[in-house]
Specification:
By secondary structure, the protein is mainly alpha-helical. It folds into 2 domains: 6-25 and 139-220, Orthogonal Bundle (Endonuclease Iii, domain 2); 28-134, Orthogonal Bundle (Endonuclease III, domain 1). The chain has helices at 6-23, 35-45, 50-63, 67-71, 75-82, 91-105, 113-117, 124-134, 144-154, 166-175, 181-194, 213-220. Helix 2 packs across helix 3 (50-63) and helix 2 packs antiparallel against helix 8.
């Protein structure tokens, strides 16, 4: 599958960052550049709505404000705090991550994708989010929402598991290669949550409308 031109991806990126500056959502994990706090948020946000995560995140960090305190947490206490998020299988990963970071990296969250993805419960998406938002690195991430906006805007075809497609990852890497990687990441996450939603997107509210293949095709219809 042919990857869109870098120029077109750059325009897409610039418009999203502009939109984010005016319309981005406010969450407690966006008020910090602490890699530990951002990692915890991203682990909680997997398959969970952000608004649901906020009270759990704040309670969690009052009890475990850093790697060392989390590394010695009791499993039962963690389960009680994380219970509202469901997916009980995630709970052990928090303590396991903290223990590995303490033992292997002297309690400092790693700064490379390879190191981050070696941690329990940390995949490519979480690693990309932490690296771009916390460390300001030009690192990519892809989830089903990002696949959706790329399909609509660039009119690309994807497999059912689009986030693993090579051409989708290549577009994400080019998207991540410009300035202000943290805002670029948060912008594409927010615009897919608020505007380019599953089902019927709010195209009339979207500043991408003039170059989006999906929006232009709807106008023709």
């Amino acid at each position: 599958m042919k990857v869109p031109a870098r120029k077109d991806i750059s325009i897409f990126r610039r418009k999203i960052i502009g939109w984010y500056k005016k319309n981005g959502r406010a969450y407690p994990w966006r008020e910090t550049d602490d890699p530990f706090r951002i990692l915890i948020a991203e682990m909680m946000l997997r398959r969970t709505k952000a608004d649901q995560v906020v009270p759990v995140y704040e309670h969690f960090l009052k009890e475990y404000p850093d790697v060392d305190s989390l590394a010695v947490a009791k499993q039962e206490a963690l389960e009680e705090i994380l219970y509202p998020l469901g997916l009980k299988w995630r709970t052990p990963a928090f303590r396991m991550v903290a223990r590995e970071v303490r033992e292997k990296y002297q309690s400092r969250i790693p700064e490379t994708r390879e190191e981050l993805t070696s941690l329990p419960g940390v995949g490519e998406y979480v690693a990309g989010a932490v690296l771009s938002i916390a460390y300001g690195k030009r690192e990519w991430l892809v989830d089903s929402n990002i696949v959706r906006i790329l399909k609509r805007y660039f009119c690309i075809k994807t497999s059912k598991e689009g986030r693993r497609d090579k051409h989708v990852i290549e577009i994400a890497k080019i998207y991540a290669s410009g300035k202000d990687p943290g805002r670029a990441t948060m912008g594409i996450l927010d615009i897919t949550a608020l505007v380019c939603k599953p089902g019927k997107p709010d195209c009339e509210k979207c500043l991408l409308i003039d170059r989006c293949h999906y929006a232009l095709s709807q106008k023709r219809d």
